[in-house]
């Protein structure tokens, strides 16, 4: 008898969720709505499309986690795809040791290897590129990333986190690294309130 009652209750709940009483969105309707919204955010090839209709990649390198937080916030606002640039050989956890490694990389103009498979950058219209500022410019591993393929015809939107340096020197360095590529003015994203206006200015929000 108990099993029959339980089955009847389950059937009743399923019926209500499907039909939905007045003023209540049924669970099935919610599921279909979410699925339709998800489908609208992808093109015919199944690639994620940002909220402004462009194919956007938010790519970032983060050492201490600050840049990662900003990148995730931007991805939440913009949509598209999110990719973390990870070195094959991780940087030291301790700041002073990491600084020494970075100093050597810059002085020798090295290109540290990236772990894992790189995204197909040619598939994107815009690359929102995040990094901490190390020795006044972007980390050398970011150069590895942007030099991995021809980015002509793409838009690069740089953002950075820093304890003291401005973003301008790194933007100028990116422009020298990527001649012929549209590298727009960057954002020093230490203050979260500046993120949305910067995205709006660059027409990245719907």
Number of DSSP E strands: 6
Number of domains: 2
CATH superfamily (homologous) name of the largest domain: Flavodoxin domain
Distance between the termini: 56 Å
Range of strand content: 5-15%
> Helix/strand-derived class?
alpha/beta
Shape: globular
What's the gyration radius in Å? 23 Å
Describe the model.
This protein is an alpha/beta fold. The protein folds into two domains: 40 residues, no CATH class; 160 residues, Rossmann fold. Helices cover 40% and strands 13% of the residues. It has seven helices and six strands; from the N terminus they run ααβαβαβαβαββα. Strands 1, 2, 3, 4, 5 and 6 form a six-stranded parallel β-sheet that branches. β1, α3 and β2 form a beta-alpha-beta unit. It is globular.
Descriptive labels:
6-stranded parallel beta sheet, 206 residues, 7 helices
Summarize the structure.
This protein is an alpha/beta fold.
What's the arrangement of secondary structure elements?
Blueprint lengths: L1 H18 L7 H14 L15 E5 L5 H13 L2 E4 L10 H13 L18 E7 L7 H7 L8 E7 L6 H10 L4 E2 L3 E2 L6 H7 L5
Parallel strand pairs: 1-2, 1-3, 3-4, 4-5, 4-6
């Amino acid at each position: 008898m108990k099993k029959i009652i339980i089955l009847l209750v389950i059937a009743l709940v399923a019926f209500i969720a499907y039909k939905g009483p007045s003023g209540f969105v049924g669970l099935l309707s919610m599921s279909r709505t979410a699925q339709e919204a998800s489908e609208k955010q992808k093109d015919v090839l199944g690639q994620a499309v940002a909220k402004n209709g462009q194919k956007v990649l938010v790519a970032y390198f983060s050492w201490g986690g600050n840049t990662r937080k900003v990148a995730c916030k931007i991805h939440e606002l913009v949509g598209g795809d999110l990719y973390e640039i990870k070195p094959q050989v991780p940087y030291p956890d301790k700041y002073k040791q990491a600084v020494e490694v970075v100093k050597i990389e810059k002085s020798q103009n090295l290109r540290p290897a990236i772990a894992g498979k790189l995204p197909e950058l040619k598939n994107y219209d815009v690359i929102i590129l995040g990094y901490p500022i190390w020795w006044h410019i972007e980390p050398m591993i970011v150069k590895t990333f942007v030099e991995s393929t021809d980015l002509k015809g793409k838009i690069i939107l740089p953002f950075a986190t820093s304890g003291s340096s401005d973003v301008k020197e790194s933007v100028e360095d990116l422009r020298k690294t990527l001649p012929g590529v549209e590298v727009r003015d960057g954002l020093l994203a230490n203050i979260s309130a500046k993120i949305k206006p910067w995205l709006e200015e660059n027409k990245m929000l719907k």
